[in-house]
Amino acid sequence: MLGKLLGAITGDAGQVRPEELGPRFQEALLPGEAVLAAFRTVRDGFALTDWRLLVTNRQGITGSKTEILSIPYRSIRRFAVEVGGTAELEEELKVWDHGGEPVTLGFRRGGGAAMAAQAVLAQRLRGA
To answer: Ranges for the Bacterial Pleckstrin homology domain (predicted)?
Structure first.
């Protein structure tokens, strides 16, 4: 319970149903594109589909302006998962594409979401 509360405050992601990412995310999906796993923080979210990583970033005070970052799997060069230790409250998945700087996705520690996300990512990059 404390972990979920801290995650809500700090913005760490937990796994959710794709519908919970909101209408802007749904609009970004192509016809027939399947969401394999979805994760959400208080304001933002991301999903792994059958051919890309989609990251939603709500901006501004009201969150009405939304950036949607799309990274096709063919553009991903490497990724790393950092799982929490004893004192850490979060886990991270870092994804590098051609740009050089990683996209960092934060997770609540202990929920298994970071490892679930990296497993889907690894399977997609492997071509499964």
So the answer is: 7-109
Beta strand extents in 8-108 (DSSP E only): 14-16, 35-40, 45-49, 52-59, 65-72, 78-82, 90-96, 103-108
Q: Which CATH class is domain 2-126?
A: mainly beta
Over residues 83-93, mean pLDDT: 73
Alpha-carbon Rg for the chain in angstroms: 14
Joined tokens for residue 33? 């594109």
**What is the maximum alpha-carbon separation in the chain?**
43
Please, are residues 22 and 45 in contact by the beta-carbon 8 Å criterion? yes
**Residue 122 C-beta-side C-alpha neighbours within 13 Å:** 9
Q: Residue ranges per domain, the chain?
A: 2-126
